[in-house]
Amino acid sequence: MEDELITLNIGGTVFKTCRSKLLKYPNSKLGSLTPASEHYLPSSKEYFFDRNPELFNVVLDYYRYDRQQLHIPNYICGSVLLQEFEFWGLPLVNIAECCFHIYTKHEDEEAIQQNLFTRHSETQIYSNLTNSFRKQLWLVLDQPNYSRIAQFVNDL
Predict the structure, then answer these.
(1) Whether residue 88 is found in the same domain as residue 123
(2) pLDDT for position 129
(3) How far apart are the first and last CA of the chain?
(4) Residue range 124-147, pLDDT digits in tens
(5) Element (H or E) spanning 9, and its range?
(6) What's the number of domains the chain is made of?
(7) pTM metric for this prediction
(8) How many C-beta atoms surround the C-beta of residue 85 within 10 A?
């Protein structure tokens, strides 16, 4: 029995592969495609997904090759790849050691951004407290009738 050829239109770029490759992950979006799918276009006999075709090359390679490791091109952002694999319902595992830095780079960048945000927030809180204290001090010194403390300081 000949393996059925599947046509996938990903963001306008046509990909063809064998159904048996997609069945490697039967619970994934591609592994569970049927002509009843909302993505199936009967007029062109293809499945259409409005996704990035460059990223899809990596996804389709994940299905095609029986590699023990996933290889990621240098130009792909790790967080975008993670989102893409989540969309397709694939596990993002067994990243090759030579490519692991590409995937984890976004985690390092997110940690740096979070650290900067935390520092900025702490600085902003300190700044707000300082400004509030300055305002209160100014009122005490400038307006003797502002409070009892202001009256006491004024009497000194």
Answers:
(1) no
(2) 59
(3) 102
(4) 555 665 666 677 766 667 677 666
(5) strand 5-10
(6) 2
(7) 0.63
(8) 19
